[in-house]
């Protein structure tokens, strides 16, 4: 059994957390246009986007390298505007036995929690992946404030 970890970041946004939540849950296909330096490709494979059981693949850039992830939405809490994604394929699973991303959006705040289990004690913390999310949020905020 690997070492379990959790990283959490909360960001204040001027455009409102609900607007960012809408981009993530119903307009995810726009992310490659909104954040082209971070998100190369997004595609829904199964189920409806933004619904439990929805499977999507992402090609994204982390530390300048192209990465791949396939995720499934495990849970949605409409009261907290929260969604939980689970990585089911991709680069993250090369280093981690399990990897979940939990997002919540409220008023002017967005919170990301990365919950993971490292394959070995020497596996690094996923700081670069957290930085990826922070950059995407800033890109979305800039896009929403501009439009």
TrEMBL record:
Residues 2-147 form the Bet v I/Major latex protein domain. InterPro entries: Bet_v_I/MLP, MLP-like_ligand-binding, START-like_dom_sf. Pfam families: Bet_v_1. GO terms for biological process: defense response. SMART domains: Bet_v_1. This is Bet v I/Major latex protein domain-containing protein.
């Amino acid at each position: 059994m690997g070492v379990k970890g959790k990283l959490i970041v909360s960001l204040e946004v001027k455009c409102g957390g609900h607007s960012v939540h809408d981009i993530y849950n119903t307009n995810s296909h726009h992310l490659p246009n909104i954040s082209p330096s971070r998100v190369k490709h997004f595609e829904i494979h199964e189920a409806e986007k933004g619904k439990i059981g929805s499977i999507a693949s992402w090609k994204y850039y982390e530390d300048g390298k192209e990465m791949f992830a396939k995720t499934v939405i495990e849970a949605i809490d409409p009261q907290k505007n929260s969604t939980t994604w689970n990585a089911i394929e991709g680069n993250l699973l090369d280093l981690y036995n399990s990897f979940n991303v939990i997002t919540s959006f409220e008023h002017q705040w967005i919170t990301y929690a990365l919950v993971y289990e490292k394959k070995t004690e020497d596996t690094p913390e996923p700081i670069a992946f957290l930085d990826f999310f922070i950059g995407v949020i800033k890109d979305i905020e800039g896009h929403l404030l501009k439009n």
